[in-house]
Amino acid sequence: MPRSNKSETQSPAWPWPNSLDALVAAPKHHSLLLENDHVRVVHTHIRLGDLVPLHTHRWPGVVYMLSWSDFVRRDEKGNVLFDSRLGPPSHKVPAVQWIEPLPPHSVENVGDADISMYIVEVKNPSEK
Questions:
Q1: From first to last of its 128 residues, what are the pLDDT tens digits of the chain?
Q2: 5 lies in some domain
Q3: How many domains does one find in the chain?
């Protein structure tokens, strides 16, 4: 059973409110699999054509990509931060990569398949 110790306050080091956390701001696309004082494991599922609302990912982590599709990531003002169609060819899956914390952003699946991944977020042990 997932465990959550969420606080309604935010750390001075993280300037965005908890209301933008992926699980709160975009629950249709993010589900909690496990959470403790050290890690949080989230399943992200973005169906073909879906637009994930503005949200954040507070901690760095390991992404295990189950299925891939082209996507566009935009900032809180709608500016394109990344468009996978403009880079090298699509990822082969399964794939693993490291990600840093992500400030407010939205994601639009503009490809031809669903996007599915597990994110193992590594919490800062000094944060409670």
A1: 444 444 444 455 899 999 999 999 999 999 999 999 999 999 999 999 999 999 999 999 999 999 999 999 999 999 999 999 998 876 789 999 999 999 999 999 999 999 999 999 999 756 54
A2: no
A3: 1
pTM for the model: 0.85
**Quick one: CA torsion of 44, 102, 17, 20, rounded to 10 degrees?**
-30
Nearest to 28 by CA among 112, 96, 95, 106: 106
CATH number of the domain enclosing 107? 2.60.120.10
Domain extent at residue 85:
28-122
Please answer whether residues 71 and 84 qualify as being in contact, where contact means their C-beta atoms are separated by less than 8 angstroms: yes
In a domain? residue 4:
no
How open is the CA angle 91-112-88, to the nearest 5 degrees? 30
The strand pair at 115-122 and 51-57 is best described as unpaired
Sign of CA dihedral 3, 57, 115, 49: positive
- In a 13 Å sphere around the CA of 72, the CA atoms on its Cβ side amount to 11
